[in-house]
Design a protein that fits this description.
Distance between the termini: 21 Å
Oligomer: single chain
Number of strands: 2
Number of helices: 25
Order of helices and strands: HHEHHHHHHHHHHHHHHHHHHHHHEHH
Radius of gyration: 28 Å
């Protein structure tokens, strides 16, 4: 017993060592501070609804054009490329479709960093205007028979403008919704953005289907193809009106204020400059920072975008033409099958988004990736069969695979990047991946089928996308229910905010106590361990 006492005394005296005291003060200073009421943002429900509606409407406008273009691919091939064979007409039409995706990264490079500097809502209004005008203009283009080779060139120009504006659209809309959503409902609210996507596609394809049934093939070739593009004008005006009424996101406002304070401190200014203006001035070097410090997030984002968009464009843009031109099925039947698939996606997408809030983003993406690898071939085997029932079941399988990614992407992708870089990093990553892999899917698939004469190539293409998506998901960190990077927590009510602050203070106090016990009274910790043992 007499030998044990000096050791305990030495432990106690060791706690008053000046070096230990300095280490204690450093650790306590560096520990994660507790949240204050100012750190937690309580969302305003009417503003959240307005943000979600305006963002979804813009995405609906974008995909209305895609739905129209996909369903009119054969008709547009006859109008603008009449001298080619039917197969070459389809490839030429999809080449024009893919050309819009080549300029999407340029749009992302322009609109993304601009959205991080001057704000999200201004850029979203600009992309809405460009998109509506370029889509509306297609309705007034003369045919090849009228002006010759100039006609497809004008169509290409309209598609390039559409692609450039779209380069800032989806990334901006996902960023806007994510920065307005409460942390625990971001999956559900974000899924409404892609709900707008498929409503727009269904609306565009539905109009084409009705017109085809009413006017017939010849009527559509002569003048009916113009009608769907005319609808883009009123839709664009409504979307622009809604976006002009939006407020800037709370996350961007806070980031701009912090940038203003930092700028004022560094320049010894009074700090009375406009925060947004200062944020604009501090935008140098963002692109370099994205690729040097966040390259892993960029690669994960590109992998998830590839997974989603290869599946998306395979179903929405290529499948109607594949069923008619390659399999020789009736055009109206093929259009109705794909339209029915889109309706299933619309009806289930918000359920998937809500499920990702409960189960997490990674499980949903992981399950979808595995299912895509396993079920792509069976789905296309069913689609190749005659009749209605088996192709309908094959289309349903593809639709349910698609909704796994569509319902989760808008809440997953913005969480990969911090607030000050989010719009730019997401725009660049998203658009590069879509341009290289997503938008080229119809062109590559149709070209490979034409060369190989193997109509199962689209299924193999989907399987490759599933493998890449699985790898990206493996490295994805779970973000469900957590604040966005670089942002504070966001909740729905003041009671939730108070509970969060109280829990944070309790946790911070517990950590401080553990640090104190560990350094000042290590013998107490050892005794506690001995008692537990």
């Amino acid at each position: 017993m007499s030998k044990g006492r000096p050791r305990r005394e030495s432990r106690r005296s060791g706690g008053s060592n000046p070096a230990n005291d300095r280490l204690l003060r450093t650790l306590l200073r560096r520990r994660k501070r507790s949240l204050s009421a100012e750190d937690v943002t309580v969302t305003d429900k009417p503003e959240v609804r307005r943000a979600v509606s305006a963002s979804a409407l813009g995405n609906m406008m974008e995909w209305f054009d895609f739905g129209v273009y996909a369903y009119l691919a054969g008709i547009l091939g006859e109008v603008f490329f009449p001298s080619s064979s039917p197969g070459a007409q389809v490839v030429s039409t999809f080449a024009t479709f893919a050309a819009a995706f080549l300029v999407r990264p340029l749009g992302g490079l322009v609109f993304g960093p601009l959205g991080d500097r001057i704000g999200r809502k201004r850029v979203l209004a600009a992309t809405m205007i460009m998109m509506a005008i370029s889509t509306f203009a297609v309705a007034f283009l003369p045919s090849y028979d009228s002006i010759g080779f100039t006609a497809p060139i004008l169509l290409l120009i309209c598609r390039l403008v559409q692609g450039f504006s779209t380069g800032g659209e989806y990334a901006g809309a996902t960023t806007y919704i994510a920065e307005y959503s409460p942390d625990k409902r971001r999956g559900f609210l974000g899924s409404w953005l892609d709900f707008g996507t498929f409503v727009g596609y269904s609306l565009g394809s539905g109009i084409v289907t009705i017109l085809t049934a009413a006017l017939g093939h010849d009527g559509m070739v002569h003048w009916g193809w113009r009608i769907p593009f005319l609808v883009a004008g009123p839709l664009g005006l409504i979307g622009l009106y809604m976006r002009l009424r939006l407020e800037e996101t709370p996350a961007f406002k806070r980031q701009a204020e912090e940038a203003a304070a930092e700028y004022a401190k560094e320049s010894h200014d009074e700090g009375d400059e406009d925060p947004v203006e200062v944020a604009r001035q501090s935008g140098h070097g963002r692109l370099r920072e994205i690729f040097t410090q966040h390259w892993q997030a960029v690669l994960i984002c590109m992998g998830l975008v590839l997974l989603y968009n290869v599946t998306n464009y395979m179903v929405t843009s290529y499948l109607p033409t594949f069923m008619t031109e390659t399999l020789g099925q009736d055009a109206l039947t093929a259009q109705l099958l794909v339209l029915g698939t889109m309706i299933v996606v619309v009806l289930t997408i918000t359920t998937v988004g809500r499920s990702s809030d409960r189960w997490g983003r990674r499980p949903v993406f992981m399950a979808g990736s595995i299912a895509l690898i396993v079920l792509s071939v069976p789905a296309f085997v069913l689609i190749r069969q005659g009749g209605i029932l088996q192709p309908a079941f094959g289309c349903l399988i593809l639709g349910l695979l698609l909704v796994c990614f569509a319902g989760t992407s808008a809440s997953t992708l913005p969480a990969l990047f911090p607030t000050r870089l989010r719009y730019g990093a997401l725009s660049i990553s998203f658009n590069v991946s879509v341009s290289l892999f997503g938008g080229t899917t119809p062109l590559i698939a149709s070209g490979l089928v034409e060369v190989t004469k193997n109509d199962m190539v689209p299924a193999y293409y989907l399987m490759v996308a599933g493998v890449i998506g699985f790898i990206a998901t493996y490295f994805l960190h779970e973000t469900a229910g957590r604040p966005l990077r670089g942002s504070g927590p966001m909740v729905e009510t003041h009671d939730q905010a108070r509970s969060l602050v109280a829990a944070s203070r309790t946790e911070a106090g517990r950590r401080a106590r553990d640090v104190w016990i560990h350094l000042r009274h290590p013998w107490a910790r050892h005794n506690g361990d001995d008692k537990q043992g």
